[in-house]
Amino acid sequence: MSNKSFIIDLTAEDRIRLRFTTKEGKVRNFVVQYEIFLKDEWREILRYDTTHGFLHMDICHYKKKSDKIKLDITDLNQALTYAIQDIKARWRFYRERFGKEIK
Question: For tag attachment on the chain, is the N or C end more exposed, with fewer CB atoms within 10 Å?
Fold first, then answer.
């Protein structure tokens, strides 16, 4: 098995953190999270992962528990690609939504 982790910087205050494990070229598990730099610390506001034994997205909130949404993508290679592409395409939307909760 091969474990990999890295960060994709979107801006100085926005990034994607990735961790995944592959075996024989196939993704076995992963975490892809969108983080913002807020009040002197990195804070996750959206996460795709396979924790708990199933693929899901967690929408994080400023002062309450996250919302967990189960996803029906069975191919984890495709799911990993989807998660990265979704965050790259919609990070401004996710940041704005989270920012509204702070006010």
Answer: C
